[in-house]
Specification:
Length: about 180
């Protein structure tokens, strides 16, 4: 356990109670204590600009969901194509990596469209940026990938070639502990 990260997570938790009403910090701490393997993933989320925070608790299992809650897509995770296949397919001007590859390195999951929309119900995120999201295999097989953002007070889901990458597009992830 990293004491500095723990302190940061607790302060963020207490500052943003609207994201996790009816969840006590003691419950979160108990889950973290029982799952020491979560610390490297949370540290990677934090170090790359994700500002992880608790966004849910499964009452049946007691599992706690953390998500990137930075206002814009995390700065340390932008200019990436969607996955390793897209990265390998680029013949020139390759990005530094892929969203799915980096998520796997962190030990977390890309948000699904449902999770992205649930996050947007807790605040306004990606007003200037966009985030790759988990793409259904049938769409990915055709060369595409999905991304989302919030514009004009609405959440939009779009498609793009999985090989594409932009300075304002990154990815958000989640970790369930």
């Amino acid at each position: 356990m990293n004491a500095a990260l723990l302190q940061l997570l607790q302060a963020r938790f207490e500052k943003n109670m609207q994201r996790h009403r009816d969840i006590a910090w003691a419950d979160v701490l108990a889950r973290l204590d029982a799952n020491p393997s979560a610390w490297p993933a949370l540290q990677a989320m934090q170090d790359s600009g994700g500002e992880p925070d608790v966004i849910g608790l499964d009452p049946a299992t007691g599992r706690v969901a953390f998500c990137d809650c930075s206002a814009e897509t995390p700065a340390g995770r932008r200019s990436l194509c969607y996955d390793a296949a897209a990265l390998d397919a680029r013949k020139e001007q390759k990005p530094a990596g892929s969203a799915a590859g980096m998520a796997a390195q962190f030990g977390i999951e890309l948000l699904t469209e449902e999770q992205y929309r649930a996050l947007q119900a807790l605040g306004e995120f990606d007003l200037k940026t966009s985030s790759w999201i988990a793409t259904p295999p049938e769409l990915r097989k055709q060369g595409g990938a999905l991304f989302c953002d919030r514009r004009y007070g609405r959440v939009f889901t779009y498609h793009n070639g999985a090989q594409s990458y932009y300075a304002a597009r990154g990815w958000r992830g989640s970790l369930t502990v």
